[in-house]
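// run 5 | inverse folding | seed 20
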């Protein structure tokens, strides 16, 4: 088992001398926000035509059902509920985003009723398809499913891909007390594997852990750990090794995964039952994954994930409209990537996962 350590990590050479001190210096001089705004504004020239794989839609019919649930875990996002496609397009034009791959954010479609979840998924997917038709080249669609309703999800996969021509599927990192490697979800992943689908995971807070810290909303900490739980679930159950034809994308530079990857890999290797499910070893399975950079471009985030995977597995994501483009782009552009690496992250990696975008 080989893991790249700090001394020989390729990311070490990417950091410009002294750049890690720059944010603190700028903040101390009162220029931090202005500096970030200027860096973000420079994105079109620096990054070219961006493809945003972490971009959300809030269809009016969905908001009617989900409004109170969204505000319950993120009251500061009240203004986001007034989102419109025109707002996305204006920000995309401002920051040089050619195409946004749109999806529902948390809480997804599940509110305890399977029929309602199916209707919300269908409505959302048809809404996303209409955006693609009305704005050619500007939007792609990551289809919502009705999980944990497996039968409805299988029906929606067929409709989304065969009728609506969706670009991929967007899932939550957990559903109630189940994570994606759970055997109950196997039929869904078997079908996605058969279709060689790209599957994007958006974080949520599992039932066990929602509201653990009263003063800290779930997106602050729990979302990042649920990304790691989802990855670990898929790894330890052998799902990553089994579903080799799925392209997996995880949000926010993998959440807490990279900092504890040595522990994950070690324990997966020591557990004989788990190791038997991973013929190529746990590290090889993790290194096949893709990660978006949404709001996770500080050296502590990117430096960690780059010790696990290379720039060829990173994708630009913004998390708009829940967070502005300025929350991601300055860190990405100041990190010290080469022009070739920026091109990979900005668009080329996404075009490999979504071939339609190359045309």
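// decoded
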């Amino acid at each position: 088992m080989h893991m790249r350590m700090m001394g020989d990590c390729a990311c070490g050479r990417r950091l410009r001398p002294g750049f890690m001190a720059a944010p603190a210096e700028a903040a101390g001089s009162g220029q931090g926000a202005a500096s970030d705004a200027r860096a973000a504004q420079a994105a079109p020239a620096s990054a070219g035509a961006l493809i945003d794989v972490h971009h959300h839609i809030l269809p009016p019919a969905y908001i009617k059902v989900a409004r109170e649930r969204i505000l319950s875990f993120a009251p500061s996002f009240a203004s986001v509920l007034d989102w419109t496609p025109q707002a996305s397009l204006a920000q995309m034009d401002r920051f040089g985003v050619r195409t946004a791959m749109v999806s529902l954010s948390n809480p997804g479609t599940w509110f305890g009723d399977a029929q309602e979840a199916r209707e919300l998924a269908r409505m959302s997917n048809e809404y996303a398809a209409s955006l693609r038709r009305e704005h050619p080249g500007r939007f792609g669609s990551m289809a919502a499913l009705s999980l944990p309703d497996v039968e409805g999800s299988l029906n929606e996969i067929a409709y989304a891909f065969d009728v609506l021509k969706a670009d991929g599927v967007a899932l939550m990192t957990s559903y109630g007390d189940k994570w994606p490697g759970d055997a109950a979800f196997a039929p869904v992943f078997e079908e996605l594997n058969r279709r060689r689908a790209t599957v994007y995971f958006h974080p949520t807070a599992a039932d066990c852990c929602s509201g653990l810290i009263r003063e800290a909303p779930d997106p602050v900490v729990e979302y990042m750990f649920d990304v790691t739980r989802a990855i670990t679930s898929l790894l330890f159950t052998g799902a990553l090794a089994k579903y080799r034809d799925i392209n997996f994308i995880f949000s926010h530079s993998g959440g807490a995964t990279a900092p504890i990857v040595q522990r994950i890999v070690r324990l997966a290797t020591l557990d004989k039952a788990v190791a038997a499910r991973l013929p190529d070893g746990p590290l090889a399975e993790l290194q096949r994954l893709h990660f978006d950079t949404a709001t996770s471009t500080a050296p502590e985030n990117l430096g960690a994930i780059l010790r696990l995977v290379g720039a060829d597995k990173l994708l630009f994501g913004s998390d708009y409209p829940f967070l502005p483009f300025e929350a991601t782009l300055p860190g990405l552009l100041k990190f010290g990537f080469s022009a070739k690496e920026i091109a990979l992250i900005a668009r080329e990696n996404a075009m490999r996962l979504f071939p339609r975008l190359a045309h």
